[in-house]
Write a structure and sequence with these properties.
With about 425 residues, the chain is of the alpha/beta class. The chain has twelve helices and 13 strands. The strands form three sheets. Strands 1-2-3-5-4 form a five-stranded mixed beta barrel. The longest helix is centred in the C-terminal third of the chain and has 44 residues. It is elongated and about 205 Å long. The protein starts with 12 loop residues before the first helix and ends in a 24-residue tail after the last strand.
Length: about 425
Amino acid sequence: MGMESSPEAPQPVRVVLSAVGQWIGRLGRIWVEGQIAELNRRGRMVYITLRDPVANVSARVVCQTSVLDAQSPPPEPGARVVVYAKPDFYEPRGTFSLRALEIRHVGLGELLARLEQLRRTLTAEGVFDRERKRSLPFLPNTVGLVCGRDSAAERDVLENGRRRWPAVRFEVRPATVQGDRAVGEVIAALEELDAHPDVDVIIIARGGGSLEDLLPFSDEALVRAVAATTTPVVSAIGHEQDAPLLDHVADVRASTPTDAAKRVIPDVGEQLELVRQLRDRGRRVLRGALEREFSWLEGIRSRPALADPVRELDRLTEKVVELRDRARRSLTVSLDRAGDGLEHTRARLHALSPATTLARGYAIVQQKDGSVVRSVADLAPGQELRMRLAEGSLTATVESVGTDPTDDPDTEEAGPTGGKK
């Protein structure tokens, strides 16, 4: 029902806004689709600018943070969403907004949300951990290749691989790389190559495409199959900007099939150049070591002991002869001194010897018991005595005992054999 008004009887602003609010309130809850242009969080509330994807029209959406966070992952600016909301008109300011009760991803946004949820789940399980990734062999004997039949990816890998190392061998397993059958065929080819005894590395290659075209390479079954292989796997899906979940689980991620061939197969020219450089470096190191050893040897040979070893021997011989002569002189002097001392001692002993005294004419008078007679007081007439001379001995009998004339200072010495018996 329209409002009656005229220039003479206009309606107040409050009445008009109240009528607009009442009319909007009768719209009820509706689903609205759009793209998030702006998103601001303020405490427990979220303020969103929802833009029409075709026309240059936008609406304000207000909701609690719990409504936005109910989606995993929560919508971000640029995401397309559908909003279940109740139209609301704020009369004091005359502003229109949608009070959101539920927000969902729509189309591609919903697909990305599912992939993000799967990525988080696999990350939590450790499927993407760097510790489980294997290193590529330096020179693979055989390279396994999973790709589309007669595809550009196959040609890129084969041509670049053989150009880099002509002797490399390939085991190619064609598979559907798009659509419903892609996941099963890629897994079957992967398992066959993983079981092949000669395959050292496996490349899964595909050219670029839309997100929907690359969905098979983000399938959970394929991701887990790659994680379960014992052979290193290289992911070469799409282009640099494409990032399916296969890139996260593969041991090496190549930006393109050509890049995969470069990462897996070494360039024979580069390796020959590297060998040449290492050989030259080895020669320089060896030459330097030999020069140092020769310098050391020359220094050793220039020393007097080695430069003229006979001279050193002569010097040592002279020293030995000198020491020998000195020892002989010292020994001779010592022996001479010892001989002189021995002669002196022998002369002293001879001078002090009783035999020498006897040789001068003296005799030793002993009693029968062998004791030496020292005084006539010890003798008695008729006593037998034994007299020891310088040569031989005799027995005598004491006839009388008297004073020895030599006791009288006035009496002359009769001689060494004089005296009374």
